[in-house]
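Re: protoporphyrin IX containing FE structure - here you go.
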Amino acid sequence: MREVSRDRRPRRIPGPDLTDAGVTRSLNQLRESLLEPNKRIAEGFEAVSVTMRDGTHLRGIAKNHDNYSIQLLDSAGKLHLVARADTGKIEISERSLMPDDFARRLTAEETRDVLAFLSRQAVRQREKK
Ligand code: HEM
């Protein structure tokens, strides 16, 4: 049998893997992520724009950042490790890359269906209490 990835989104779309969303997120968290994505941005998914000292620019998502370096994944899927000492300006966006208009685009019923679907996504079994 052929191994098939459960994550069928094209690599270029930078959203988190939701195959386990029902186990790792509460329904309220899922609702907030879907309807108000700018409120809280999932770790490792902040949009970042870096201007290097030599004037070149890099854009992507910040996979990791600390006082010394920043790991930036660009839209081609390339990971850049950038030393802070080589950078001029680093801007981390407060807005999510996730579209923020689902509250307007989805009907109440569609929202309920999407959340019901997401809350059932579980690769791992729920731990027995
Ligand atoms: C109906 C369609 C969609 C659903 C149900 C959905 C659902 C979600 C959920 C539940 C999260 C939060 C995940 C977490 O807490 O780790 C999330 C985050 C994210 N999604 Fe989506 N998404 C959708 C469409 C999209 C699209 C079209 C894009 C990109 C063009 C996108 C990009 C992102 C990004 C970048 C994040 C991480 C940033 C953040 O937490 O706000 N999503 N999405």
